[in-house]
Design goal:
The complex is a heterodimer of chains A (125) and B (110).
Chain A lengths: L2 E5 L2 E3 L5 E8 L8 E6 L5 E7 L6 E3 L7 E6 L4 E6 L8 E8 L10 E3 L6 E5 L2
Parallel strand pairs in A: 2-11
Antiparallel strand pairs in A: 1-3, 3-8, 4-5, 4-9, 5-6, 7-8, 9-10, 9-11
Chain B lengths: L8 E4 L5 E6 L11 E6 L6 E4 L13 E6 L2 E6 L8 E8 L5 E3 L3 E5 L1
Parallel strand pairs in B: 1-9
Antiparallel strand pairs in B: 2-6, 3-4, 3-7, 5-6, 7-8, 7-9
Classes of the chains: A mainly beta (125), B mainly beta (110).
């Protein structure tokens, strides 16, 4: 059973930083690309960042480029998102997701944990 | 890449068919066969319903189908059922090596 458990969210002031984590289980971690997807309250989905299966290629949404770094530790089945210079526009629920197919970064859809709760980030003074 | 354009809402009666459009550009929807569709019920994580324009993951009802013409992709749901009421999002791979979502469409089953 695939599980993706996010953590690290919280309340932070404008200009602050947070590091989100996602621990995965139930699938072969090191052959799947991974993404962070966020959803602001009452709003739609926004892809934030993605990283391929071995970590040597990453991509970022324009809205976060230069402020966010995605990384992974295949030995620990873990995904991370370092977020800096946070603004109110970054307030959202952050989901971790995996590429549904192995070795197919972003191409064949991304799969969320059906029981995934996400981790909430609130940027407020 | 700007968010893909979807209608804010669509509605239909049980048993009817509806279609949701998703319009992008030649640098995303029009340039690749990598359009996906997701269903999201309130307070739950999104679920992949269609990938690579028209492929259904195992477990997705055959009532869901996808297509694409030019820069516009479409999701059709036939024989609407009450449980289909949800938000639907399209996504596309982009020429920048990123992913972009549509703004989302709320489906109401009357």
């Amino acid at each position: 059973e695939v599980q993706l458990v996010e953590s690290g969210g919280g309340v932070v002031g404008p200009g602050g930083s947070l590091r989100l984590s996602c621990v995965a289980s139930g699938f072969t971690f090191d052959i799947h690309g991974l993404s962070w997807v966020r959803q602001a309250p009452g709003r739609g989905l926004e892809w934030v960042a993605g990283i391929n299966w071995n970590g040597d290629s990453a991509g970022y949404a324009d809205s976060v480029k230069g402020r966010v770094t995605i990384s992974r530790d295949n030995a620990k089945n873990s995904l991370f998102l370092q977020m800096n210079s946070l603004t109110a526009e970054d307030t959202a629920l952050y989901f971790c997701a995996r590429d549904c197919s192995a070795f197919e970064w972003l191409a064949t859809g991304i799969c969320f944990d059906p029981r995934g709760q996400g981790t909430p980030v609130t940027v407020s003074s | 890449h700007s968010a893909l354009t979807q209608p804010a809402s669509v509605s239909g009666s049980p048993g009817q068919s509806i279609t949701i459009s998703c319009t992008g550009a030649h640098t995303d929807v029009g340039g690749f066969q990598y359009v996906s569709w997701y269903q999201q019920h309130p307070r739950t994580a999104p679920k992949l319903m269609i990938y690579e324009v028209s492929n259904r993951p195992s477990g997705t009802s055959t009532r869901f189908s996808g297509s694409k013409s030019g820069n516009t992709a479409s999701l059709t749901i036939s024989a609407l059922q009450p449980e289909d009421e949800a938000d639907y999002y399209c996504s596309s791979y982009t020429s920048s090596g990123t992913l972009v979502f549509g703004g989302g469409t709320t489906l109401t089953v009357l």
